Amino acid sequence: MLKIFTPFLYKIPLHILFWGLVWLFFYLFFSTGSNNPQFLFWFTSILSAISIITSYVFAYNLIPNYLLTKKYWSFLLYTSYAIIFTLFGVLATVVFGFVFFFNLEFQNMPALTKSSSVILVCVFLIIVLASGYKILSHNYKSIEEKKTLENKFLQTQLQLKEQELKFLKMQIHPHFLFNTLNTLYGFALKKSDTAPDMILKLSNLLDYILYQVDKPSVLLKNEIQHIEDYISLEKRRFQESLEVNFIKNLHDDTIQIPPMLLLPFVENAFKHGTQINDVLHININLKTTEDFLSFHIKNTFKENTNNKKGIGLENIQKRLEMLYNQQSKLSISSENDLFIVDLKIPLKNG
């Protein structure tokens, strides 16, 4: 029982104000044709008490426990009991005034106070208003709870998405680092004079893949710079057996993209590309417009050499799906001894 009336306890002042207005309404309405203030006081107080009891039975018991839980037959049964109680209370109130204030002289009673139908309409009107408010309040609360649950669900989904993105980045880091260190190892064996410059470029790359990659976005020109550093390292390794063309057409230097978005494609071209006529050919074309970034890369490739795309492309596909949903377009194909990647993503930053 205490649980049922707990919400009411927090709104006592409002309830007192409401029932005070109801009492005043009854008093003014039934005072028509009456000059007996003592009778009006008790008559109005009894009707208000009946209205309060029945309204709270509906608002805090029948509606939440039966109507809203779809126990319709039980709700109808207990509603009929409440109606009988109200009818009996109204009739008892009329008899009370008839006996104690008008000495059994029915004709002396004010017209409105001896009309049971008028009294019932007034009482049921108050009950309906109180019950309707309870239903509307419940619906509003349900909508708010639904919104809260939806927000929590979306927040959880976002956290899971961020965790998965971090996991994908963690997979890309060692994969890319392993390939780059192998390149430097080859030069160390040759004791190349260019090793200091290579170490500097590798240091920049390591800073990028280990620290900058944790940022939500980086400048596109920074990603391009690291692509060029990577190409420079690979040129030292391949020497005359490599031909790379990197064409850039940017409309704005402030464009931002997620870090390590394009670099894995370039790395994949070197790692899994195939030399044809003793030369590995790689062509890269990067173009931006106001709305999109287009990235096209193709490298020589022999399908019968058991080459694989590797973990880099697989993870970058998952990242694209999570970052851009259905707004990005990635096409990977091979034809005429060429492995071709076409990427198109929307630009959110200008």
Automatic annotation (TrEMBL):
One of its GO terms (cellular component) is membrane. The chain crosses the membrane at residues 12-33, 39-63, 75-104, 116-136. Pfam families: His_kinase (PF06580). Keywords: Membrane, Transmembrane, Transmembrane helix. InterPro entries: Bact_2-comp_sensor_kinase, HATPase_C_sf, Sig_transdc_His_kin_internal. Residues 164-242 form the Signal transduction histidine kinase internal region domain. GO terms for molecular function: phosphorelay sensor kinase activity. This is Signal transduction histidine kinase internal region domain-containing protein. It comes from Tenacibaculum lutimaris.
